[in-house]
Amino acid sequence: MNIAIIGLGYVGLPLALQFARSGAIVLGLDVDEAKVKAINDGRSYIRQIDSGVIAGEVKAGRFSASTDFSRIKDVDALIICVPTPLNAHREPDLSYIVNTGKSLAPHMRKGVLVVLESTTYPGTTEEDLRAVLELGSGLKAGVDFHLAFSPEREDPGNPDSKIALIPKVIGGFTPACLERAKALYGMAVKTLVPVSSCRVAEAAKLTENIFRSVNIALVNELKVIYSAMGIDVWEVIEAAKTKPFGYMPFYPGPGLGGHCIPIDPFYLTWKAREFVQSTRFIELAGEINTAMPDYVVAQAAAALNAAKKPVNGSSILILGLAYKAEVDDDRESPSYVLMNLFKERGAEVSYHDPYLPVIRPTREHSHWAGTRSVAWDEATLKKFDLVVIATRHQSVNYNELAKWSACIVDTRNAMASVQTRPGQVYKA
Ligand SMILES: NC(=O)c1ccc[n+]([C@@H]2O[C@H](COP(=O)([O-])OP(=O)(O)OC[C@H]3O[C@@H](n4cnc5c(N)ncnc54)[C@H](O)[C@@H]3O)[C@@H](O)[C@H]2O)c1
């Protein structure tokens, strides 16, 4: 089986390796020349993926990468894993999918299978992607080529998450498309979950992520309510989760981050408008989660106030730039929102993250580009008036933090099992 995977990011690269491991010959395509070169050199650019694993597959001749889309003319299946962000008006930005479709279409041969994996609203595969592919190739979906949608279920930072063992939802444009897609994924994934259409598969992915967004909003709201009552929400969750049925723990935090939970729900709210449907629950969850950084800043101001210090002029360290523990991914990270809010209030802001030594240039955070993670030592830490724990990386030594820092705002319950002084740690 010859496969091309388009988009070699957090989703596409592990998927490519899984197919290569399963015996497929995988061609990775990306517009980013640096990624293509890294793969062909056997080098990883994602923390959780070992360079040796890439090098092994490249050496065995099962994996190579290119920017040349004309090379797809010999492959049996094309799997698209490109970004699906929101635009400046917080509306779905399908341009990556559309551009990928435009690049692939002229080189598509009869009988090829095209699968979209990018998270998106119901209808994208059958309407938007199909239209560009048919227009550019002159081929008809379901007749001349097969078309399917199968969402990715990556759990970044979780070492037990193995693509092969995560059940894979698949929807086909026609029953024959579904059968082809099942045959493809069956070689690399243990459990397949076929559904009746691409739309159902697209909706299943959005449902999973909206479920998370709504439940995180709920615990974030409970955190604020219980805090006013002098109750620690983390202790409450530990107790509640001992119920063996009907409860699933979600944890509060400084706000939502990553490429999925803050974005995907709004793919559905946008599409729902076309059907004159309101999406109050989803919007409310978004509102509560978006307000979390303000709550953290208010708690930080109270903590500084107790030490007779204003935010203005204080020196504040954000501990953790990644949006979740154990990853080097800072997309949509609430740490940036916190940094901006503190800076606007006149604080001097720094960050420490063992996995992100320097802030890369991005459109959203260009003013932080080039800022470096400060060193982790007593002299450096002692200089800060306040440390805000935004991400709970395991490799950070929280005992040292307790020894070196006078005032800590903890949004992740990282200090729970650490010996601290009275009045030293504020939960937020
Ligand atoms: N990261 C996750 O944990 C995760 C989990 C589930 C689903 N998803 C979804 O998977 C999709 C991809 O996410 P990701 O995290 O891998 O993104 P990413 O930004 O890490 O990777 C996307 C890759 O696509 C490449 N690319 C962009 N335009 C291209 C084009 N026209 N042709 C070829 N390559 C192109 C980029 O250079 C990049 O390497 C998104 O829809 C996302 O919502 C992500």
Walk me through this protein's architecture.
By secondary structure, this protein is an alpha/beta fold. Helices cover 38% and strands 13% of the residues. The strands form two sheets. It has an eight-stranded mixed beta sheet, with helices on both faces. Strands 10-9-11-12-13 form a five-stranded parallel beta sheet, covered by helices on one side. The longest helix has 31 residues, at 198-228. 44% of the residues are buried. Bound molecules: nicotinamide-adenine-dinucleotide. Nicotinamide-adenine-dinucleotide binds at residues 6-12, 29-32, 35, 81-84, 96, 99-100, 103, 118-119, 152, 154, 156, 259-260.
Briefly summarize what is shown.
38% of the residues lie in helices and 13% in strands. It is α/β, with parallel strands linked by helices and 428 residues long.
List the helices and strands and how they pair.
Layout: E1 2-6, H1 12-21, E2 25-29, H2 33-40, H3 51-59, E3 63-66, E4 77-80, H4 95-104, E5 113-116, H5 124-137, E6 146-149, E7 168-172, H6 175-186, E8 192-195, H7 198-228, H8 233-240, H9 264-274, H10 280-306, E9 315-319, H11 334-344, E10 348-352, H12 378-382, E11 386-389, H13 398-404, E12 408-410, E13 425-427
Parallel strand pairs: 1-2, 1-4, 2-3, 4-5, 5-6, 7-8, 9-10, 9-11, 11-12, 12-13
Antiparallel strand pairs: 6-7
Bound molecules: nicotinamide-adenine-dinucleotide (NAD).
